[in-house]
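The following block was generated as part of the benchmark described in Methods. Ligand: S-adenosylmethionine.
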Amino acid sequence: MLFPLGSGITTKVLPPTKVPVKLLLDNHGRVIDYLRLSITDRCNLRCRYCRPEKGVPFIPQNEILSFEELERLVTIFCQLGIKKVRVTGGEPFSRRGCLPFLQRLKKIEGLQDLHITTNGVKTAKYLDALAELGLAGINLSLDTLDPKRFWRITRRDYLESVVDSLHGTLEHGIPLKINSVVLDDTSDDEIVQLVELARKYSVTLRFIEKMPFSGISRSKKHLCSSLSIRLKNILPTLEELSPNFPTTARTFSVKGFNGKLGIIEGYSRLFCNTCNKVRITATGLLKTCLYDNGVLDLKKMLREGTDDQEISRAIKNCIQTRFINGHETERFTSKQDVEPSMASIGG
Ligand code: SAM
């Protein structure tokens, strides 16, 4: 199309150039565009479903990926088609240098959304910087609002700091999701108290099935009651939403609520058919399913001087050999007597 300008010069308006969209597809045709990064196994809480109080030594620092190694991996993954990265742990803010690391990650080409998952103990003081950074969202873990129960679950007394981080995140306008693991002894009262948060505030509160990642001996039976039935009993007006993007959570709206509710059926594994994520553990293992033992030793490759192209190829190979769902992965994966701890996997 030609447009005459006042000067008599004409200019040609070109149709927008199509930038090729990189898609990383697995062997089942699922788009993989989400990477979860555990940057440390250290944590200032000792949640009893995640790790034992004592007896699990911290991983020595030199076995944890350095920030430079992590940045290099994220760059490679983004070149492959990853668009969303979640930094998690352990507790991400327990690792010195977490904030500058997030600031560097944000600049990586191709990375569209940077998120963190945090327990909120130390998060409040970073909120100004996180808002300025344009963080796409915070997932805050909070299993109860009852101080005694908080102590019993986390073995620490930090409920107030977590609640401060919750309100601070809302005040800073950072999108907030609250993750609550439902335990065998979680009462309806506790659930109702948490649900109040979603009624009052614009948050998504997700109840999570407890999964077998406690860092303690495998119990004979992993008990897990249906969260959807329980929630529907408490809130009969729940309405399930059908999102048009892959998600691990079933989301519900409730009349009169500012926020939403969700459930993550990580033990039942009903969402695997839309799984779009892979993980890197604190020690640099690539996991293409939460239930595998790690399918590629990225740290070894990095430290042996493997070049980016070779690492890229190895990652693609792993993504081409994923199991269809977490039940299949579990069936074909050897199990230790002790469950792995979510603290090093990253949740
Ligand atoms: N420290 C951060 C936090 O607390 O959010 C990030 C790491 S934590 C391992 C990530 C998430 O995993 C938390 O929401 C935690 O509740 C969840 N988690 C840990 N162990 C779990 C288990 N056995 N079953 C279900 N969720 C678990």
